[in-house]
Amino acid sequence: MNSLHYVSRSLVRRPLAAAAVVLAALSSSLSTQTFAQTGSVQEQFEQANTSLEAMILTNTQLRERIARQEQLISEMAANIEYAAVLADDVNSPLNGLIDQMMSSIEQFVESDLPFELQARRDQVERIRNLINNPEAPISQKLSLLIGLYQAEGAYGRSLDTYTEVMDVDGVEQEVTLTRIGRIMLAYQTADRQITKVWDKEADQWVEVPAGEYRTSIYRAMSVASSTIAAELMNIAVPAPVAAQ
To answer: Is residue 184 scored above 80 in pLDDT?
Structure first.
């Protein structure tokens, strides 16, 4: 009996132990699967979040680019519209500016020192005729007018001497004119007996006394013709006046 009782207890315990092992194995397997699934979801969330941030950045950059393009399109449209207005030679707002510039340069040449006066007047008249021509393009008018302003401006920074036939005290004779920028214009006869400077205020030629001024003007003429090197000299120039 004892032996039979022992056997029956062993048979009962073994299935319980086996069941416990199976349950432990199942529990371990479920825990591993749950951890794996949890890790997978976390990775997917991080990847999705990274993708979202990249999309937000890209979207912001695209918005900024579109805004710049819209601004550029607006500026181009304005420039095209303005260019169309300027291209209208009849109604262009530049016509008034060109007329004003032309009148100013005409008055300036007539009131300036009378050097190479006829050549300068001819140039002014040629451009005036072009400006008065309604069929001439505005671009050509403006280009020539700006060139005229540049040429007149250059005279104030240069030194020049040339010969010309003039009326000297009622006698036509060849004289040598010397110009120093726009501060002095003078001439001497070939025998150096008569030397005159242009008095802008009096609007006429005024003879300078013999001696130092005549010699200085002769040396200025030599410097302008590159006969001698530049040097300091005393010359007759108008006194400075207050700007108006």
So the answer is: yes
